[in-house]
């Protein structure tokens, strides 16, 4: 199974889902739901997890979680492992309760947190159990509509802050925001997720890619390739000629070398693009350029300059959000 891409940093927002193995039910009783919520509480207390929203369906759950520290894996291991142990002991069963790894989508909180909160809170409606819409053992909606009943581990202030300055106005407007959609079909904001990993504005996606993904590409994590597509041979040739000059002696050999390393094309395809060269000559050229870089500092710097141009998008790195 391909590894999921996990992007972690302090203050990150995630939409989390985890389903029962073979889509089997993971909540069979009121006590099960209470126990699961107790693990949300201990995750808040022990790991600083800010739980903004939850929905506990029969065979899966949704969470909107903020990590004060870059510790998503610790939070989720605590929640899922603790609940699995409880569930297995109670039913005298063994093995996995949840299906594979949990799914975590990094969220641009300013653009999508409010919409996701409504999506999560309306999950009982989507599942055909409208009567449980405000059941606190089903979702966190009741805490949003009745702030005095809010458990300490649940954070509602951030979402509600978008609906006014006073608590009564916030609650009234949020109620309308959610309830007005009960009888309507609305598109899930998750449909806009990029590479099953990111949900946010173009600026947010660019910031994440530049700061967390470009320098950490891994062949076993498909999302990194989807978010950082490989440069074409045309792009490599263009940038090489821009840096060293179209007529420079090394322009062709450097272009061949970088196409071999970064384009993702095989030797035959690279040879066909450049023409008058065989596949074996492409790999021989790559070895020559590698060796020359070890001895020629100027060549090494030139190659590094071109690599930066072909692997980084045309945008500036932003720090902090």
In short:
The chain has helices at about 30-45, 70-90, 110-120, 125, 140-145, 155-160, 165-180, 200-215, 220-225, 235-245, 250-260, 265-275, 280-295, 295-310, and strands at about 10-20, 50-55, 60-65, 105, 200. With about 325 residues, it is of the alpha+beta class.
How would you characterize the overall build of this protein?
This protein is an alpha+beta fold and 321 residues long. It folds into 2 domains: 205 residues, Alpha-Beta Plaits (2-Layer Sandwich); 82 residues, Orthogonal Bundle (Chromosomal Replication Initiator Protein Dnaa, Chain: A), CATH 1.10.1750.10. Helices cover 50% and strands 10% of the residues. A 5-stranded mixed β-sheet has the order 2-3-1-4-5, sandwiched between helices. Helix 10 runs antiparallel to helix 11 and helix 10 packs across helix 14. The radius of gyration is 25 Å and the shape is elongated. It starts with 11 loop residues before the first strand and ends in a 10-residue tail after the last helix. The C terminus is likely disordered.
């Amino acid at each position: 199974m391909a590894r999921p891409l996990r992007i972690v940093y302090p203050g990150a927002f995630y939409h989390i889902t985890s389903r029962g193995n073979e889509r089997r039910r993971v909540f069979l009783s009121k006590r099960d739901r209470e126990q699961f919520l107790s693990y949300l509480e201990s995750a808040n207390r022990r790991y600083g997890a800010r739980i903004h929203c939850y929905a506990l369906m029969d065979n899966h759950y949704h969470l909107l979680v903020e990590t004060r520290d870059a510790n998503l894996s610790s939070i989720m291991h605590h929640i899922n492992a603790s609940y699995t142990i409880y569930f297995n002991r109670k039913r005298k069963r063994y093995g996995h309760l949840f299906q594979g790894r949990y799914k975590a989508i990094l969220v641009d909180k300013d653009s999508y947190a409010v919409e996701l909160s409504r999506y999560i809170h309306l999950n009982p409606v989507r599942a055909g159990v409208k009567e449980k819409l405000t059941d606190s053992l089903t979702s966190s909606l009741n805490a949003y509509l009745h702030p005095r009943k809010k458990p300490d581990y649940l954070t509602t202030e951030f979402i509600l802050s978008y609906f006014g300055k006073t608590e009564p106005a916030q609650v009234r407007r949020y109620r309308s925001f959610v309830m007005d959609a009960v009888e309507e079909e609305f598109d899930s904001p998750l449909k806009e997720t990029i590479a099953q990993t990111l949900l946010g504005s173009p600026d947010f996606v660019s910031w994440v890619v530049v700061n967390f993904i470009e320098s950490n590409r891994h062949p076993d994590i498909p999302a990194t390739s989807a978010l950082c597509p490989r440069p074409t041979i045309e792009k490599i040739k263009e940038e090489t000629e821009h840096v060293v000059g179209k007529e420079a002696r090394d322009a062709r050999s450097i272009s061949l070398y970088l196409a071999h390393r970064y384009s993702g094309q095989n030797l035959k395809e690279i040879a066909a693009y450049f023409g008058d060269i065989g596949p074996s000559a492409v790999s021989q050229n790559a070895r020559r350029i590698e060796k020359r870089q070890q001895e020629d500092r100027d060549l090494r710097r030139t190659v590094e300059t071109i690599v930066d141009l072909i692997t980084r998008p045309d945008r500036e790195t932003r720090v902090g959000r």
